[in-house]
Amino acid sequence: MTISTKKAIVIGATGLVGLALVEQLEQTPEFEAITVVVRKESQLLNTYKKVTQLVIEDFLLLNDEDVSGHTHAFSCLGTTLKVAGSKQAFYAVDYEINAHLADLVQDKHIHLLLVSALGANANSPIFYNKVKGQLEDYIESLELEKLSIFRPSLLIGKRSDVRFLEDLGQSIFKFIENKLQKPFKYKPVTAEQLAHTMVIAALTQIEAFKRYDNLNIQQTR
């Protein structure tokens, strides 16, 4: 594959990680074009030269034609129970839309890169972790050209929505950050670190499937 043939499609592009990812893809020469799937047009995303916005009110309406022609599909889409408002609404975003994207890239020459979470486990008593685990299990069962799953811990960065517990965690982390220089399993990572790991995986991963845990994200250069 030549340097000019990599084309990305991104869902969740207006969130904390998604924006960091688009910024880094924009600066990565190997990617010549970036399609971002959004519910409404973003003026910020219009400032990127490589970006084309695909406006779809319901992401479940994304189809084969929309996805075809891309070499990489990135999902940074996720919410919280508080933001979603109910377990059903949370499941509809975190599981159903991500599973739909995976279904679309199945049997295509597309590398799928998915942001999951530390603690994802289909048998977890914690609903959030359970849904993330169920999604991972489903996607791993598909016939995919190449799959990368990323399991970050708490993400550091400025969000457009208010997430009290995550904001509290960020404040605590920044207070003791000078004591946490060495990598460890639960150390929070920045959105930029995660996005960088995703881009590196897109460019270098050889394996058909690889899971990147929180330590991998901390240590990627």
TrEMBL record:
Any Pfam family matching the protein: Semialdhyde_dh
Domain Semialdehyde dehydrogenase NAD-binding per the UniProt entry, residue ranges: 8-80
Matching InterPro entries: NAD(P)-bd_dom_sf, Semialdehyde_DH_NAD-bd
Highest rank taxon of the organism: Bacteria
Name of the protein this chain belongs to: NAD(P)H-binding protein
Native source organism of the sequence: Acinetobacter lactucae
